[in-house]
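Retro notes, structure queue

What went well: the backlog is down to a handful. What didn't: a couple of records were mislabeled last round, so from now on we paste the full input next to the output in the thread. Example, using Class II glutamine amidotransferase from Agromyces bauzanensis:
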Amino acid sequence: MCRWLAYLGEPLRPSTIVLDANNSIVAQSLDSSLGAETVNGDGFGFGWYPTDAPAGTEPALFHSTEPAWNDQNLRELTRAILSPLFFTHVRAAAAPPIQQTNCHPFRYENWMFMHNGAIGGWHKVKRDLTLAIDPSLYPNVLGTTDSEVLFHLALTLGLADDPVAAVGRAIRTVESVGHEHDVQFPWQGTIAVSDGQRVWAFRYSSQGRTRSLFHSADVPTLREMYPDAERLRLFGDEAHLVVSEPLSEMPGVWVEVPESTAAILEPGGYRHEPFLAD
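Corresponding output:
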């Protein structure tokens, strides 16, 4: 469906990952080896939090309907700025139209959200799920994607207080409404969400066959494994990535996030929690 990447760590020029990695997100937009579609050319988005921004700062967003491989502005931005936390998403549109308001990541106040996957039977469940959004949040739904509706459902159900529980409640709502409309497998996807300080990444599907998701191992450990790897010197000790598919083929660099798991990245490292596991 799509490919995405999230970075948390010491301030970094995003181009280091977005453009320069062997299997960068831009390379994946042209030729994805693990994606449901090989080409993800239906627009892209880049969202970032400024360096040294206080807690609660709103992220900046750049969206384009051009393919990521064809957009010079993405190259200019990612080479010019420094950020300790950023998201990048390349889109393969399933049904909603190609327009800027349908490009991820989505934003509400200090929260940022992106998704790879789909709500099953969207045309059947769209009305019920949209009406479940808090009326005060509804005016902020600017596009037509199922992903943006899910984000606002999670906001409605307490994202600011407990992201893992809120995303879980939002997906359970999707499954409940889907089953009411005879949708066998209502939910499929990986999700990234951030408050500007941490990143929560989720892997879950109703069928138990979710799209791929990985995060990087600790940089100090990787330097011990690969003492001659010049590229690792570009990253600080706190640097972590979450990706739809690995950016390199170096053994030991990438840890697969298990099915029905939430991976929490925060200063000091990462941890896994069971997510909607039966």
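Agreed that this is the format going forward. Reviewer comment attached to the example: The chain has a mean pLDDT of 93.
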